């Protein structure tokens, strides 16, 4: 596949042409490096379940899928060119890109550094357009990205750690942000539902914040891994007795499940004033009985990734605590298989594409 020729920097990525298509090489152009831009040679790109939802058009009509689509919003690479006004980066630095690459820069959300909630709608890293609402964006399953430095992150990690740092740009911030917002720390009991890409990051980060962590999983085979990741307890969520025994226990539960499922058992698992934070985005809506929230002053909350300042804070927190993602490094010809394995919950715990050698 080839995108219509425009001026710019020729690059190569991997794209799907429709919801049932497999990945194919895709030639396209990045814009020329402007005064505030940096050019990143992408080294590693994580595979988030959101890539799968969008590549396979599972979020339509809420979020339409635009093809050809080059997914990827967990990006780390080396800065190879900087614009004349760039101050945050120099050539040779490592940089990261997460889920968005621009926003209106004027609304309250943008001013408060929560650009993911830009009232005009931020420019997503892929399956979106630039703020001109015309130029399509293509993601990190590619060799290069050109981004305004204000929407790139400083990555201060040794090169050998970079494959495990890439998933922090989405899985890391998506779990760090609600854990922090809901006051997770010593003395708090935290539940993590689903031990996948987001879930295993939630375990590591909540432990580093000092909480007691319980994993809820449909996969009994993940129990030993959960302990290695730092979890204190492991509950098989399909075991009704086990679920009954922890009723009324938790301060915060983070639900990272990607597939349709019943969230009521997790509301029961919350203690007084507890909050269930949903970050997983299945296709179908969940149903909740109002009384289950009223009796116990409980809440359900949502959370979308994190803004640029908090993403930088999360990267620095993870560097300080020695936290990276547990990954399986793959070549681009394995992306389709990696998608199928991720959907089957057979990922331990993030696939990362080796774009450096692609
Ligand atoms: P993932 O790696 O595939 O992990 C999802 C986990 O959910 C699986 O490993 C599995 O864990 C569990 N699961 C899968 N199918 C299930 C089922 N039928 N019933 C119960 N549990 C099931 O996915 P991810 O990349 O972590 O993403 C998770 C979700 O978060 C996706 O919907 C994604 O789009 C969304 N997301 C949201 C944000 C945000 O900002 N809110 C950001 C990124 C991603 P067990 O084997 O342990 O059960
Ligand atoms: Zn993601
Ligand atoms: Zn805005």
Query: Structural class, from helix and strand content?
Result: alpha/beta
Percentage of residues in DSSP E strands = 25-35%
CATH architecture name of the largest domain: Alpha-Beta Complex
Total of helices: 11
Low-pLDDT segments: none
**Shape assignment:** globular
| Total discrete domains | 2
**Overall radius of gyration:** 20 Å
CATH topology of the largest domain: Quinone Oxidoreductase, Chain A, domain 1
The biggest sheet amounts to:
7 strands, mixed
How far apart, in Å, are the first and last alpha carbons? 17 Å
Order of helices and strands, N to C?
EEEHEEEHEEEEEHHEHEHEHEHEHEHEHE
For CATH, the homologous superfamily of the largest domain is named as: Medium-chain alcohol dehydrogenases, catalytic domain
Verbal overview:
Helices cover 24% and strands 27% of the residues. Helix 4 packs across helix 5 and helix 4 crosses helix 10. The two termini are 17 Å apart. With 358 residues, it is α/β, with parallel strands linked by helices. Strands 3, 4, 5, 10, 11, 18 and 19 form a seven-stranded mixed sheet that branches. Strand 13, helix 6 and strand 14 form a beta-alpha-beta unit. The chain folds into two domains: 211 residues, Alpha-Beta Complex (Quinone Oxidoreductase, Chain A, domain 1), CATH 3.90.180.10; 132 residues, NAD(P)-binding Rossmann-like Domain (Rossmann fold). The chain has eleven helices and 19 strands. It is globular, with a radius of gyration of 20 Å. The mean pLDDT is 97.
């Amino acid at each position: 596949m080839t995108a219509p020729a425009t001026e710019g920097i020729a690059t190569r990525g991997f794209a799907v042409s429709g919801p049932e298509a497999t990945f194919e090489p895709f030639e396209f152009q990045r814009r020329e490096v402007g005064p505030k831009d940096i050019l990143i040679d992408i080294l590693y790109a994580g595979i988030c379940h959101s890539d799968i939802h969008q590549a396979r058009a599972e979020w339509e009509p809420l979020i339409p899928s635009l093809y050809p689509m080059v997914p990827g919003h967990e990006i780390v690479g080396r800065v190879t060119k900087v614009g004349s006004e760039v101050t945050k980066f120099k050539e040779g630095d490592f940089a990261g890109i997460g889920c968005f690459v621009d926003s209106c820069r004027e609304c309250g959300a943008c001013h408060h550094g929560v650009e993911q909630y830009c009232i005009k709608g931020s420019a997503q890293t892929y399956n979106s357009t630039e703020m001109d609402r015309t130029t399509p964006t293509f993601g990190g399953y590619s060799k290069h990205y050109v981004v305004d430095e204000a929407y790139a992150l400083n990555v201060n990690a040794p090169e050998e750690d970079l494959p495990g740092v890439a998933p922090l740009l989405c899985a890391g911030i998506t779990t760090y942000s609600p854990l922090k917002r809901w006051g997770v720390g010593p003395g708090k009991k935290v539940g993590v539902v689903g031990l996948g890409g987001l879930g295993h990051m939630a375990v590591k980060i909540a432990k580093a914040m000092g909480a007691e962590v319980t994993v809820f999983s449909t996969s009994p085979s993940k129990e030993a891994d959960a302990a290695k990741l730092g979890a204190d307890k492991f509950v098989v969520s399909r075991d009704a007795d086990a679920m009954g025994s922890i009723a009324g226990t938790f301060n915060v539960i983070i639900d990272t499940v990607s597939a349709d499922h019943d969230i009521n058992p997790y509301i029961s698992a919350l203690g007084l004033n507890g909050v269930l934070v949903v970050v997983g985005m299945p296709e179908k809506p969940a149903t909740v009985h109002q009384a289950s929230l009223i009796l116990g002053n409980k809440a359900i909350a949502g959370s979308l990734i994190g803004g640029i300042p908090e993403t930088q804070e999360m990267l620095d927190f993870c560097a300080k605590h020695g936290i990276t993602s547990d990954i399986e490094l793959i070549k681009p010809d394995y992306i389709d298989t990696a998608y199928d394995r991720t959907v089957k919950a057979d990922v331990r715990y993030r696939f990362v594409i080796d774009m450096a050698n692609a």
